[in-house]
Design goal:
- Helix 1 packs antiparallel against helix 4.
- The protein is mostly helical.
- It is elongated and about 45 Å long.
- The protein has four helices and no strands.
- The longest helix has 30 residues.
- The protein has one domain.
């Protein structure tokens, strides 16, 4: 049981890392600083960015739950 949770935990950790790295930055560098971020407000790609954001949130929640479960299993 503990080994299964450890494997799931490792897969979730790798998935969370990949999901965070695939997201684009919120800042647009120097043009974003000059325009005040208005370019990202109007020229935003909603489809992929929203899906990656939701995926990251789900993976983070599952990672936290698996951490708690793993802590209880190891503590017994």
């Amino acid at each position: 049981m503990e080994l299964t949770v450890q494997i799931i935990h490792a897969v979730l950790a790798l998935g969370l890392i990949l999901a965070v790295l695939l997201q684009s930055g919120k800042e647009a560098g120097l043009p974003g600083a000059i325009a005040g971020g208005a370019q990202s407000l109007f020229g935003k790609k909603k489809g992929l960015e929203e899906k990656l954001g939701k995926l990251t949130s789900v993976l983070a929640i599952l990672f936290m739950v698996s951490s708690v479960v793993l802590a209880f299993l190891v503590g017994r």
